[in-house]
Amino acid sequence: MKIAVIDDRTEEITFLTEYLDQYLGERSTSYQMVCFTSGEAFLDHFREGMYAVIFLDAVLDSENMNGMETAKKIREKDPDVMIIFSTNSPDFAIEGYTVGASGYLLKPYSYDQFMQTMDLVYDKIHPVRKYIEVKEKKMMVRVLLDDIIYCDYENHYIRIHTARRMVRSYMQFRELSKLLIGYAQFQCCYRNIIINMDQVQEMEHADFLMSNGERIPMRRQERLEIRQKYADYIFEKTNL
After folding, report:
1. Span 120-127, average pLDDT
2. Which residue in 213, 188, 219, 190 sits closest to 201, CA to CA?
3. Distances (CA, A) of 118 to 53, 102, 168, 230
4. Domain boundary among 77, 109, 125
5. Torsion from C-alpha of 94, 99, 102, 108, nearest 10 degrees
């Protein structure tokens, strides 16, 4: 879970970090927090889908843009991100909900107050693990996208390779492609082979070394394009 904090007081950021550590630690949820001291700095960096939740001080000490103005700009870019106002002024409470705020924490707030606010949004901001469903023998089985290393095709069967086992399903390769290619981490790098780029250990000149130790070749004619797509994906992922 990726969280942004926009607050111009270092001590408030430290205080919030302690509460987040406790709350998300109790729920075995890992998170990454990025801090900004002004709305302008945040908006220069921000794009839709970048964060699950934003903690925002409504009364930022800025000559150009206060927290409420920042929230309105955030909403223009991302209508769905959760915004929780954290401030020592109650004056913006009503206006805060006009920008779709998910919560309002009045400083100084207790852990119980923080927990009550987080409980309201946790189920929405906690990422749901995505999966596909395929038919194996006579049963429908779910395969988590994160667990897939690569998929290939043999004798009319799709083979989905995971760290734990291989799932075999009688289906056409193009049917599987429709299920996976819409997700950014999957790429068809060879005829009837789709890799999960999150499972690549190393990209070499002509193949990918996967997390299970297998090497998956690249199509010779499209090698440059395949390598570039992988590089672009890793760049986007590491700069979110």
Report:
1. 75
2. 213
3. 10, 9, 41, 36
4. 125
5. -50
